[in-house]
Amino acid sequence: MATLQVGLSRGREAGAPVRLRRRRRVARTLALGLPLLATAALIVGPLLITLAISLWRKKGFGMEPAVTLESYRLFFAGVRLEVLERSLWVAVTSTAIMLAIAYPVAYFVAVRVRADLTRAVLFLFAAPFLVNYIVRTFAWADILSRTGPVNRVLIWSGLVREPADWLLFSDFAVYLGLVTAYMPFMIFPIWLSLAGIDRRLLEASWMLGEAPLATFRRVTLPLSLPGVLAAAIFGFVGAFGEVAVSLILGGTGYQLLGNAITSALDVLNYPLAAAVSSAATLLMLALIVAWYGTFDIRLFLGKIMGRH
Prior knowledge:
By secondary structure, the chain is mainly α. The radius of gyration is 27 Å and the shape is flat. It is built from 13 helices and two strands; from the N terminus they run αββαααααααααααα. The chain folds into two domains: 1-54; 69-305, Orthogonal Bundle (MetI-like fold).
């Protein structure tokens, strides 16, 4: 009898750590799972609601539940299709310009700037975001206006005799606003990829007799592509759905996709606005899925993920 009691006592003692580990696992799952579910609901829920409304039918000043593609037909026809084409063109070309500026800057910070100064330099690129985005856009409108400092300098220097009208309410102003608004975002993912490259790979290329340009083309550039594509997505998504820059710097007649959505809301055509939003969201989601499927996320996060 005593032997049986001893065996039961030892069994309970042995099972205690198992039960403790099981409880910790359940607690960890709840602690992580509930916030993730809440975040997913707050993000995915509105997207699903928007997609559902895009299939409804406009009726008077409201809408009624239905399953119709009428809003998508209106979106992909006529003037709105031209707005879509212009938005794609502006987004692609402005993203290319931003990449052409952001990559050399990120390369310089990753390769030339001392490690103890890197954070300070990166903070300087983030400093403009301390000022409200709309305020910065209106500031550009004042700088580029007929009575602004740019025109005053041009007239004072004798380069022009009268204020240049093409500086504001033009493609130039829109591209300038987009580049200054989103280009700083693109520096950080490119720098992250460049900083995560193993320097021994570069040294091996040099030891094998490759020139610096060839090393950059065959080693540095391919390894930094995850960050480049991530930066391109940031810039493209921002420019593609832009509203304020096109309205303030392009004028009321300058329509991009974001302005098409607000125009549909102004006339209370909620299904059409939802259809335009859903189409833009699906395009952006396709870009993110393509990036995630093409590159290893650890290559993008580099040393932060512990890659050596």
